Structure to design on (400 residues):
């Protein structure tokens, strides 16, 4: 076990030149987090194939469930958020992400529990799977092959979708999400077809190519985003439910990979209170005292120069099943308003706009570049994005 700051390496100020030095990037990324992040498209294809081999059809034998609970924590928990958002408000049954051990007290034989764990041993997923089995709920398990989670699924005679551990959990979002979506499709809750999966994988591949390590900062959107965030307090807001899932995902990766404190969430909720951050000591007050003649390369060792950096994820797409585009029009007006507010206060703002036809492809377009940006931000600080001493130490202390 490490003591204090032992094993913590890196430098407080970002080194822009490091990001355009491929040898230095490789040296600071010995675990290959960039490579794992670039595998997102391959994850979609592999997990779709693995889900096709599982006996998911048994889920449909008892008809539509009363509710679906997706149990998991961390990245596994985000899969429930993705399903709830892709299913949308017209989903015929409630889709409920659950991040605690066990399952909600009302879960019974009329419900479906999807337990997700990249390692196959998280207490939350195992507890949910075992509780679902005891209560007679239909169960689907997604996780590492030959794991405790697979054993529970086999004991319950429930479908198990093996997801090989080719990357850390936080770099396996798509490997874990696709089986969850395909299980929900079997239950008739989402309309995700093979074309949607293929287009999503192609989108992730294309963004991985744009964000490749050999692409210099001025043409690499992830490196540019990382350098813009360097030394700031990032505020990440999503303009729609789909974009909010991506915003919270960015918050996850910025915290775990780059070790940055982040405020993330829905723009609509921010407008009821958190937008006041733009007026605060790290927002408008700090920007009002900025010396426009100061050399930005001087740095501020005392930390007084820390300022907000707003990242706005915008999704103006229209769900084909909706009767009106009014919800999207409201979200777009809010996004325009917060950009105007940031500009008036001198708070710098980066915008990532969703592209693609299906909800899944649009989500991929909002996740891919930020995923890379979090890794590049870690590398710019000389941090190994793979090895996070505090995570290892936390697990040791909690005996997980």
């Amino acid at each position: 076990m490490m003591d204090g700051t032992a094993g913590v390496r890196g430098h407080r100020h970002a080194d822009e030149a490091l990001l355009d030095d491929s040898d230095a990037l490789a040296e600071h990324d010995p675990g290959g987090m960039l490579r794992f992040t670039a595998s997102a498209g391959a994850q979609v294809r592999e997990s779709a194939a693995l889900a096709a081999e599982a006996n998911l059809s048994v889920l449909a034998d008892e008809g539509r469930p009363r509710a679906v609970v997706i149990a998991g924590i961390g990245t596994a928990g985000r899969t429930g958020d993705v399903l709830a958002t892709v299913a949308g408000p017209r989903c015929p049954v409630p889709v409920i992400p659950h991040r605690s051990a066990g399952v909600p007290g009302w879960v019974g034989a009329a419900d479906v529990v999807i337990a997700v764990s990249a390692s196959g041993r998280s207490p939350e997923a195992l507890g949910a799977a075992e509780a679902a089995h005891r209560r007679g709920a239909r169960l689907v398990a997604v996780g590492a092959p030959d794991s405790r989670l697979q054993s529970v699924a086999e004991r319950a005679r429930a479908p198990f979708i093996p997801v090989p551990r080719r990357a850390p959990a936080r770099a396996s979002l798509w490997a874990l999400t696709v089986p969850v979506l395909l299980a929900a499709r079997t239950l008739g809750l989402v309309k995700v077809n093979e074309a949607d999966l293929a287009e999503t994988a192609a989108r992730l591949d294309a963004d991985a190519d744009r964000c490749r390590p050999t692409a210099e900062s001025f043409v690499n959107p992830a490196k540019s985003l990382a350098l813009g965030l360097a030394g700031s307090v990032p505020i990440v807001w999503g303009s729609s439910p789909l974009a909010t899932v991506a915003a919270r995902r960015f918050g996850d990766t910025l915290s775990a990979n780059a070790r940055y404190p982040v405020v993330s969430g829905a723009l609509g909720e921010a407008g009821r209170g958190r937008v006041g951050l733009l007026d605060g000591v790290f927002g408008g007050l700090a920007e009002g005292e900025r010396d426009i003649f100061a050399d930005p390369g001087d740095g501020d060792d005392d930390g007084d120069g820390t300022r907000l950096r707003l990242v706005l994820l915008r999704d103006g797409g229209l769900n084909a099943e909706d009767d009106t585009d009014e919800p999207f029009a409201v979200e777009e007006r809010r996004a325009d308003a917060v950009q105007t507010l940031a500009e008036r206060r001198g708070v710098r703002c980066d915008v990532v706009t969703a592209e693609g036809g299906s909800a899944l492809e649009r989500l991929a377009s909002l996740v891919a570049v930020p995923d890379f940006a979090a890794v590049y931000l870690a590398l710019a600080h000389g941090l190994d994005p793979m090895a996070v001493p505090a995570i290892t130490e936390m697990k040791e202390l909690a005996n997980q």
